[in-house]
Every structure is written in structure tokens, then in C-alpha cells.
Design goal:
Elements (H helix, E strand, L loop, with lengths): L1 H15 L1 H28 L4 H27 L4 H24 L4 H22 L2
Length: 132
């Protein structure tokens, strides 16, 4: 499901602009490779044979990500700009929540508030500079 949603995010970002799609794709591909290795390792530890673990790890990321992109693209291309922007915002929140929050929880609480403030400042700065 996670990789399928990643594919939907690819469709969304490429529909916004090619530049945004390429930047997102680079970041997510760098994310997908280690995720595949982790999936493979977990399956080995769970008792799967090496060949079967490799097949399932491949299926989990390498097939479901493009499938998510292909399924969502026809719908995304027909959305108006306001809906597209809202979906982009939701996808960024999803990426932040699913990929970054587990790491943030390990940090001391005194740094959590500082990191939250920095994140809000960056987001506000992006919004402010793009409004001109």
C-alpha cells in the first residue's frame, strides 16, 4: 500500500510540473531502494527463502509503485488547479508523516519543538515567496 501511494504521488507531482516530478522522483527513488532492501531483510528474517523474499520485495515496491502511478494518472490529469494543490499538500504531509515522524519520535523533546518551528518557518517561507 505504501509503494502504491508513492506511485500516486509521482503522478501528482508530474502533473503539477515536470521539474517537481523529477525532483520528487529522485528523492523517492533514493528512498525506494533502501526500502526494498529492508523489506527483503525482514522477509528473510521472517523465514522466507532468499529467492521468495527477493520476489516479494520486488513485488512490494517495483510493481506497486508504477501501478499506483498508472491507476491514478488518468484521474489526476483531469483535476483543477485548486484540487491538485490540495492533493499536493496532502501528499507532502503524508510523506512527512510516514517517513519522518518515526525518526522525530526518537529525538529528545526539547529539540522537537525547535524542529516543528523550523518546519513551519520553511513552509511559510515557501508559501510567501511563491505568492509574488
Amino acid at each position: 500500500l505504501h509503494s502504491f501511494i508513492d506511485g500516486m504521488i509521482y503522478s501528482l507531482t508530474f502533473d503539477v510540473s515536470v521539474k517537481m516530478g523529477v525532483v520528487t522522483a529522485i528523492g523517492m527513488v533514493l528512498h525506494e531502494f533502501p526500502e526494498g532492501i529492508i523489506t527483503y531483510s525482514l522477509m528473510l528474517r521472517g523465514g522466507f527463502a532468499e529467492r521468495r523474499a527477493a520476489q516479494l520485495a520486488f513485488l512490494a515496491a517495483a510493481i506497486t509503485t508504477p501501478l499506483g502511478m498508472l491507476v491514478s494518472y488518468p484521474v489526476i490529469t483531469h483535476l483543477d488547479n485548486e484540487t491538485l494543490g490540495a492533493l499536493l499538500a496532502v501528499s507532502l504531509i503524508y510523506v512527512g508523516a510516514s517517513h519522518r515522524l518515526p525518526f522525530a519520535e526518537r529525538e529528545p523533546q526539547r529539540y522537537s519543538l525547535l524542529a516543528l518551528a523550523a518546519g513551519i518557518s520553511v513552509a511559510a517561507g515557501i508559501i510567501f515567496t511563491n505568492s509574488f
